Fold each of these.
Amino acid sequence: MARINGVKREHAGLFVRLAYFMTKRKVGKVVTPIKIVAHHPRLLRAIAHMELGQEAAQSVSPQLKALLEVKVATLIGCPF
């Protein structure tokens, strides 16, 4: 459980709502770290740029990326 409450959708600005929508579409729900970082929209924007840049990287095949994501998630005990 996080020590900081996340930003609720009804209190979020336009960019934060867009980030929530994209996260829900990609992951299936709005994860707590995104809700917490939403307190600082500029930081959320920087994280979004980093994520998009990592997705766009073409040095590794998409199949290998997916396999590595699953492997890392199991190693660190990530629930998704």
Amino acid sequence: MLHQQDPVAASAPPQVQEQPRTIEVVAKRFTFEPSRIEVTEGERIRLVMTSADGVHGLEIKKFKVNKKIPRGGEAVTIEFVANAAGQFPILCSEYCGSDHDDMKGMLVVVAKPVR
């Protein structure tokens, strides 16, 4: 006896990406660890942010990301799709001390390979 494949299941498009890629980032005076994050264009990203000391913020203007990271190690989750290739500054958006303006990182979004 032959089993026929369900025509609805056969024609359903595959899921592009089921779960976002989780990257843990620690903010502390006056750096992000890691300070460079590399992802692929179109990838869904989940940043799990914690502070090792005081209040910080994480801002990536291109992707309209701006979240406050409280003191005390409480995790803050930020999700977005990296839908443009390029290099985008990661900034601390909460004043955190004398070297606040030097607290920077970089989000590198690598262009998706052309198929």
Amino acid sequence: MQEHADKIPQNIKDQINGDITSLNEAITTEDQDKIREALERLKNSSMEIGKAIYSQSSSDQSGEQQEQPQEEQKEEPKPEEEKKEEEKK
């Protein structure tokens, strides 16, 4: 979570930290049902990290793809240069 903290919304961070605390408390009670429930909640909330990172990565990549056609347009010869090349032939 620390590695991608900038890509994870604060509400997800808070939820996961709360679920970790709940799991630690459940472990101390040694009640297997509480441990399973707390572990399941933590597992589900941790999936939100992946979703947040993936959606952030997808939007970053789509932004890069949109920039590429603009660069290609800059490299195209200008009409004046095309005329000069035709005159040389």
Amino acid sequence: MFSRFNFFKKLFVRKDNTSSTALKNTINNGAFLVDLRTRDEFSQGHINGSINIPLAELGKSLDKFKGHNNIVLVCFSGNRSGFAKDILEKKGFKNVINAGAWEEVNNILNS
């Protein structure tokens, strides 16, 4: 049963294995921080300095990602940011980090 749980967890939550310190440094050094939740979710709380590009609008917003050395993606749980990372990497973007849940990242930045 435990291995089945791990399989589904890995399937649906694609958070990168970036240390908290490395993630904080990357963001503080000017990474393009993108929140992929809906506009309504974003308006209820978000990381200061992040921009909102809902996952459904990612395809028509690719120009916004050009020229950024590091891209950090967040959402509610890591699912949408995982899908977005796959899309961006297939489009040729490098240094894309799926940071997972925005609230966890916000806590890291404020610690």
